Recover the amino acids of this structure.
């Protein structure tokens, strides 16, 4: 491996001059810096970050601790966060917890042992006491979810309003029997989204059999839950969905069963992937501006890392609303189809 000493010998410069040139020190002429950088690139030189930190340099790693890397909403946000940090010379490192507090603690230990300059975290519902202690000593910000024990610096999505708006949309179209397929209420997002579903129907009687809860990361659960609702003696005329993966599963099941949307029942999804606008009549859904939220989160973390302890005690919270995008999957309740069976029979007669 090429070292700074090797570069200095080849260029007939002192090691200190090479080190300053690599650090873009203004005391070194532009011509010398260019010579050093050109030779470093040619020889495959890689900076020894650990050694630099021992000499008083700072780490350029920022950890992103997520619950589920398979969720495209998170990956979209991670991309935006990476770009924001990259502009200031930082590198994003991804970790996945699967909502396991022990895995969350392990990931944080590794990041902090690697001297990460900062942490962006989507916390589990019950973080371990050591997780709380570790984060108190590290610049960090909570993204998408927030836990009060992890500090008062967070950037979140308004889950309550998202489901409230989606449900109100169906009510305004005349739906009274509305189903909900969503996350377990024991999770952060599950609790908040269910609350929005209830708020929208505050003056209505809610049938508990129309609500099905399960793992939000499973599209297969969405398929099963839809079959369960449509098998009821009186199926819902409209269904609101509480996660992106559940939405994917519902759309696949609708296609596989040959169901007609919105003739048989209306659908309001969660999240807005590019394909949702092309799906059958186009999916009415609540978009989640994760790129916007992540960018704001990254900018705040950069500020926090620059000013140090002065920002660690500053409370700052931001809640970003989603946007209801109305397409063809929602309409007035139809009396043409009352169950999956009659839907299929009618389709055969067309």
């Amino acid at each position: 491996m090429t070292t700074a000493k090797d570069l200095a010998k080849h260029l007939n410069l002192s090691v200190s001059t090479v080190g300053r040139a690599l650090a873009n020190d203004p005391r070194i002429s532009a011509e010398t810096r260019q010579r050093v950088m050109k030779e470093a690139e040619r020889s495959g030189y890689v900076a020894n970050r650990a050694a630099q930190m021992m000499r008083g340099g700072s780490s350029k790693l920022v950890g992103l601790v997520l619950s589920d890397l398979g969720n495209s909403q998170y990956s979209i946000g991670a991309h935006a966060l990476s770009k924001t940090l990259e502009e200031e010379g930082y590198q994003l490192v991804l970790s996945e917890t699967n909502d396991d507090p022990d895995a969350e603690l392990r990931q944080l230990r590794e990041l902090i042992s690697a001297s990460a300059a900062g942490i962006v975290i989507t916390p589990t519902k019950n973080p371990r006491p050591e997780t709380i202690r570790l984060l108190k000593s590290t610049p960090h910000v909570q993204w998408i979810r927030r836990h009060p024990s992890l500090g008062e610096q967070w950037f979140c999505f308004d889950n309550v309003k998202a489901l409230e708006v989606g449900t109100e949309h169906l009510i305004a179209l005349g739906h009274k029997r509305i189903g909900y397929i969503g996350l377990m209420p024991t999770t952060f997002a599950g609790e908040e989204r269910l609350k929005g579903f209830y708020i929208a129907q505050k003056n209505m009687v809610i049938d508990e059999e129309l609500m099905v809860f399960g793992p939000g990361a499973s599209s297969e659960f969405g398929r099963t839950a839809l079959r369960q609702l449509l098998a009821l003696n009186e199926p819902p005329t409209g269904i609101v969905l509480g996660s992106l993966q559940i939405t994917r599963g519902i759309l696949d099941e609708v296609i596989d069963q040959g169901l007609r949307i919105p003739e048989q029942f209306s659908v309001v999804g969660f999240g807005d992937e590019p394909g949702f606008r092309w799906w059958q009549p186009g999916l009415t859904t609540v978009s989640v501006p994760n790129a916007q939220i992540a960018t704001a989160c990254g900018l705040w973390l950069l500020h926090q890392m620059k000013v140090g302890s002065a920002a660690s005690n500053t409370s700052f919270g931001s809640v970003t609303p989603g946007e209801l995008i109305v397409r063809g999957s929602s309409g007035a309740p139809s009396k043409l189809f009352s169950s999956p069976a009659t839907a299929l029979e009618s389709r055969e007669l067309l």
